[in-house]
Amino acid sequence: MKSLIAVKIEIIPCLSLLVLTSCTSYYLTTESLKSQFNGADSTDLIPVIVRGPVGEQYNYLANSISIIKCIDRNGNAIQLENSPSIEMRVTEKNDKRTIFYFDRVFVNDSILYGVQSRFVSSIRRTIKLKDIKKIEIQDGKKNFDYISK
Q1: Pick from 44, 59, 42, 45: nearest CA to 146
Q2: How many angstroms separate the CA atoms of 115 and 103, rounded?
Q3: What is the separation, in whole angstroms, between the first and last Cα of the chain?
Q4: Each residue of 73-124: pLDDT tens digit?
Q5: What number of other Cβ atoms are within 10 A of residue 111's Cβ?
Q6: Handedness of CA 60, 144, 103, 127 (dihedral sign)
Q7: Are 47 and 61 in contact (CB under 8 A)?
Q8: What pLDDT does residue 117 have?
Q9: Closest by CA position to 54, among listed 101, 103, 115, 118
Q10: pTM value?
C-alpha cells in the first residue's frame, strides 16, 4: 500500500501538467502589438469595473482594445476578445519573463507599459519594445468579468 506522501508525489505532477496544457497560448509579434495600439494614447484609457471570483469589485483604467489579433502555434490568425482574464507573458531578450493582464497594458512609441497586479495597481513595469523576444497571450480562465466597460 502506497503512503499518502507517495500518492501526492504522483498526483501533483499530473495536475501541474493538466493545468499547464489546458490553456492555449497565442502569440503576438512586437510589430503586431505596436500596430494594435497605433494611434492610441493615454487619453484612450477607459474606466472599467471588474467583478472578481468572490464578487469583489475593482475599478481601474483599461486600454480600449476589444479584439486582440494574434496567431496560434501553427501560424493561423486568431482573434481573442479582450477580457480581464487575458494574460500577456513577455519574454525579454535576456530571458526575463513578465506577466501582465492584457487590458492593463499600453504601448507608446517604443515602450510597453503594464500593470502586473489586479490588486495592487502600483506594481508596474515598463519594457522597451526592442528588448522583447516573445509575447504570449493566454486566457488564464480566472473568474474576472467586466461589469461595465
Answers
A1: 59
A2: 9
A3: 55
A4: 999 999 999 999 999 999 999 999 999 999 999 998 899 999 998 778 888 9
A5: 13
A6: positive
A7: yes
A8: 84
A9: 118
A10: 0.80
In sequence order, the 6+-apart residues with CB closer than 8 A to the CB of 125 are: 98, 100, 113, 114, 116
Which three cell numbers mark 7? 500518492
Cell of 60: 481601474
In angstroms, the CA 54 to CA 80 distance is: 25
- The residues near 10 (Cβ < 8 Å, ≥ 6 apart) are none
Sign for the pseudo-dihedral over CA of 75, 18, 92, 141: positive
Q: Is residue 85 a contact partner of residue 50, using CB atoms and an 8 Å limit?
A: no
Distance of alpha carbon 63 from alpha carbon 88, whole angstroms = 14
Instruction: Specify the pairing of strand 46-51 against strand 111-115.
Output: unpaired
User: What are the grid coordinates assigned to 48, written together?
Assistant: 472599467
What does the block give as the cell for 21? 496544457
Per the document, the length of the chain is: 149
Cell of 141: 480562465
